[in-house]
## 1
Amino acid sequence: NNYELHDRTAVITGAASGMGEATALLLAAGGARVALLARRRDRLDEVAAKITAGGGSALAVPVDVTDTVSVAAAAATVEAAYGRADLVVNAAGVMLPNPIGDGREDEWNRMIDTNLTGALRVIRAFLPGLRAAAAAGGTADLVNISSIGAHALFPQYAVYSATKAALTHLSASLRTELGAEAVRVTNIEPGLTDTELGGHVDNTELSAQLGAMFQAMPALSAGDIADLIGYVVSRPRHVNLRQVIALPTPQA
Ligand code: NDP
């Protein structure tokens, strides 16, 4: 399960938990140096400690992707410690479903600002490194974690799904710009995955519905998605998996 990544430097947002954390652990096990980005410093420190205890190299960088200054500062910290990063994974995200009639502008803004604009801020901050790595003949990867919600329709998840559809389209569009410079862009669309994501749902009914989905089928694990990312980024330089949809087998 270990991909050969000894010459890679990765930046992973959402690395405090779930897919981001699992991806950081997997890439580090393959030899990559990993910068861990999310808001909760204590969680990042724990992940970094796990990696360094295993002989890997990790840097905890607290950041809020909704804050332009914070993202720019994080990029400077990563650059100072590791030089340019050639692998960027946008896993930070929030899912806050509610009936559209509730008019929860607070949640709409948080989801758009984290899932879409947050990814854009991170892309802007780390793009020079990706470009430079590719221009120097190395492998450069931008991986965005979207969702099957970009295509599948779920009532009450309209705004979350809209942010993910936008991210999926952003990935495909950016690829037309960056592919020519040998920067690969991969969009990953997971289905139901067992992580903390559903923990922030503040609607009792929707929380119970989500719980029932986890009862109804064996969900993917965060490690399943990390493994896919390891596979994608360790392909030969001329091979770009543009879009990967990964679902629990019974999920329609
Ligand atoms: P988690 O909640 O475990 O991970 C989300 C991560 O994002 C956390 O580590 C969180 O850390 C970080 N984060 C949230 N807001 C911010 C912010 N403003 N700035 C920086 N970091 C932030 O859930 P998942 O692992 O499931 O989520 C990873 C991605 O996968 C998300 O984009 C999600 O939408 C997507 N996804 C998840 C699916 C699932 O079924 N679980 C299915 C399809 C897609 P912290 O709070 O410390 O900042």
## 2
Amino acid sequence: MKVERFSSKEALYDRAVAIITQVKNDGATTFGLATGGTMEPLYAKIRETNIDFSESLSYNLDEYVGLSATHEQSYAYYMQQHLFQYKPFKASHLPNGLANDVVAEAAKYEDLLQQQPLDFQLLGIGQNGHIGFNEPGTSFDSLTHLVELEESTRQANARYFDTIDEVPTQAFTMGIQSIMRAKCILLLAVGEAKHEVLKRVLASEYTEEVPASALTKHPNVIILTDLQEEENS
Ligand code: GLP
């Protein structure tokens, strides 16, 4: 894992844009994308570039169960608002939050991913170490599946909803194995709330209790963070 530390968020996000541009110029056509507050400044910056995804394919990490693509808190809506309406892809995929058969939907999404291996995967990280919605304890062998969200994850994401009761209790997520198949992974860990869990990953802990620690075994991971070296003890 290559770790790059930034004291300026501006510089961190500029670097993220530069990496994505480079990966694309090097021939990447399939991009795994992520949502969350961490990605908002990144997508805002990408919108200002002349990067063209019109021949690329996108696959999002996760989606809430029970929310339609037009629901303002769905990840489909988030992607439309922050990126796709400005930078359309040839085709963009997310799990269908309204699928009747959730098991079949997860299998269908995993099939798609296996047909089109990801050249690149963008990741945020949850305070408990989750990547996508892979909560602590998820098998490193997991494929796309349905998850019961942890209370702490629902609380962390409640800021986007009017009340905690509106936060879905389930989600679809790519599995750890699905994520690990990507050729290149870029993880952004920004803000103090992410520092403790990032320190565990950087200390090379390798445990299913910290889902992001699977990345320590991936050959091509870049982590961009505002965690400084001296804080890393
Ligand atoms: C959410 C998403 C993750 C995201 C993480 C951090 O629950 N499912 O994909 O990376 O939590 O979100 P944020 O960037 O808002 O802190």
